[in-house]
Design brief:
Blueprint: H1 3-6, H2 9-12, E1 20-21, E2 23-25, E3 36-37, E4 48-50, E5 58-65, E6 79-88, E7 96-99, E8 113-121, H3 146-152, E9 160-166, H4 172-177
Parallel strand pairs: 1-9, 3-9
Antiparallel strand pairs: 2-4, 5-6, 5-8, 6-7, 8-9
InterPro entries: PEBP, PEBP-like_sf, PEBP_euk
Pfam families: PBP
């Protein structure tokens, strides 16, 4: 059984298991591996991300937490942690950032949260007037649904995925202080 099914990413976040894997490596030395447990401290900085890509195509990269404030009662819906569109090939640095990367910040005593990375192949450039959400802002991050975004932009199903799980550690209070909006 796919770890995406085992840990409920399918069907909680997406409808089917993508064919490919997204490689996600953090400067702390850890790598995302289909549900492994990482700490908020280890994933606080934006990772390097890679997937099998056609260099002549455009892609959308999403990172979300479907478990806010906890897996049993995700009342905040999915939390948008990172969203980049119009990525040429797999060069994320050349994409259009709609939500700056923020690491994991699960509240104390809420158990493990899943942090899901998805890549969608675009049929063309996405034109949007949506403004960029900074890594200091919560605006537009809560009550977000990747399915709705994918539908709105005709993205279909993701072509690649990966995820890790994290729970509260001593970095979380520091992480939460970064938000000014």
């Amino acid at each position: 059984m796919s770890p995406l099914r085992r840990d409920g990413v399918v069907p909680d976040v997406i409808d089917s298991v993508p064919k490919d894997k997204i490689t996600v490596k953090y400067s702390s030395g850890v790598e995302v591996n289909f549900g492994n447990e990482l700490t908020p401290t280890q994933v606080k900085d934006k990772p390097v991300v890679d997937w099998p890509a056609d260099r002549n195509s455009y892609y959308t990269l999403v990172m979300s937490d479907p478990d806010a404030p906890n897996r049993k009662e995700p009342i905040y819906g999915q939390v948008k942690h990172w969203l980049v569109i119009n990525i040429p090939g797999n060069d994320v640095s050349k994409g259009q950032v709609l939500a700056d990367y923020i690491g994991s910040g699960p509240p104390q005593d809420t158990g493990l949260h899943r942090y899901v990375f998805l890549v969608y192949k675009q049929s063309g450039i996405i034109n949007t007037t949506e403004k960029t959400v900074s890594n200091r802002s919560r605006e537009g991050r809560l009550q977000w649904k990747v399915r709705d975004f994918a539908k709105q932009h005709n993205l279909g199903e993701p072509i690649a995925a990966n995820f890790y799980q994290a729970q509260f550690d001593d970095w979380v209070p520091i992480f939460r202080q970064q938000f000014t909006e």
